[in-house]
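Subject: complex prediction, re-run

Hi both,

The earlier run crashed halfway through, so I resubmitted it with identical inputs.
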Amino acid sequence: MKYAMLIHEKPGYTDALGEDERKDVFAEYMALTEDPRARGGARLQPVETATTVRVRDGQTLSTDGPYADTKEVFGGYYVFEAEDLDEAIELAARIPAARLGGAIEVRPLVER
Amino acid sequence: MLASLVGFLRDFELAEEAAQEAFALAAERWPRDGVPANPGAWLTVTARNRAIDRIRRERTLAAKTRQLEVPEVTIDELDETVIQDERLELIFTCCHPALALDAQVALTLRALGGLSTEEIARAFLVSEEAMKRRLSRAKTKIKATGIPFAVPAGHLLADRLDAVLAVVYLIYNEGYSDLPTRVDLAGEAIRLGRVLAALMPDEPEAHGLLALMQIQHARREARFAGEELVLLADQDRSLWDAQETAAGRTALQRALALRGRGPYVLQAAIASLQTEERIDWNEVAALYGQLAQLTRSPVVELNRAVAVAQAGATEQALEIVDGLDLDDYQYLHSTRGELLRRLGRTVEARAAYERALRLASSEPERRFLARRIAEL
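This time it finished cleanly. Structure:
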């Protein structure tokens, strides 16, 4: 089954890390991208670059900022192919943001 | 039988429907043709075949092609030993952390406790419709998110077993705190506990939980005098169920023989000590101390303080209690009240009991506290 891993990060979570730690965290993200079970993913640019678009009554309304007004910031996602939810959870737990104050939402993809 | 069907089909709804069809067929055929030599196998095989037919007819997802390739099994090929006991897998599936806790509880009672949806709804004071939806959502989530039907792998097992034990104990406590007018949840929980202990004989905490529930349950007739609460020290021991106490003690012995020192084993040991004629309160206090270290729970520390007081060290007990951060907990204040009363500090005792009274959540408890205040 394919699972999306939506990464919600604690803002500035890498700032508190030392340079070596930051390198290690980056390496972990890369390792996940290169995991044979990875089926895609992307890192999003910082939340300051976000624009939220709605269409109401045929009118397009664009506003500055992210959709969700939460402390945590949606920073990126992975898609993994896993045998079952437990395997997906194990992968999600490896995402550095998860142990550094953030949270990963794991949801199966709709597959035809 | 349901467990083996869920294991085979990986689909709760389908398994339940297939099981129902098999029973219906049996009700129709057996009076006419006679009960088969191996009724369990007949039912399982029939249910599996019905399910396979249904799957073929509905032409569902590619994920099911594996079952489509399974040939229909005949009665001769299947004997009792082939039907695996997959109840353990079912328990872990029902108690998966991805499910909401109330869903875990409902599903466990439905799939393993064999309670009807209506009975579970009544037990938790919700409408049958609401409980149906709760169960349905949970089953859908299991299927849609790929919650595995398996006993968790080694490194996951400890945490997941804790979750299962917590669900069973929750069910037990739902039955324990209420008057005996609802469905016997305590009895159900003990039954589940027995199944768990039988399926995981080498897990001391499983035996510990069973022991704890049985020893507590043995006292159920003595906990109320009419509608009035009776404290442990004042209970009529002749009303205790000796057989259940003995069963609990046996389970505890098994847990201790397995070197269990986990939270349920400790609680069971404490409960067992409290059934003695003369309670060794120092030993009880020591066990609470070990438990407090494991759980870091101020409530456990409160219980330790009570044991310390019962052992004779009232001042020390009060010190422990005053150091706890449990201001909204009625039992903190009722305990303080009792300790202050014993120390002759009546004015403070009254204030503490009154605080407890304001926090009390049931009529029997309120009446009990009111009596205490009146007796000061």
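The longest helix of chain A spans residues 19-33.

- K.
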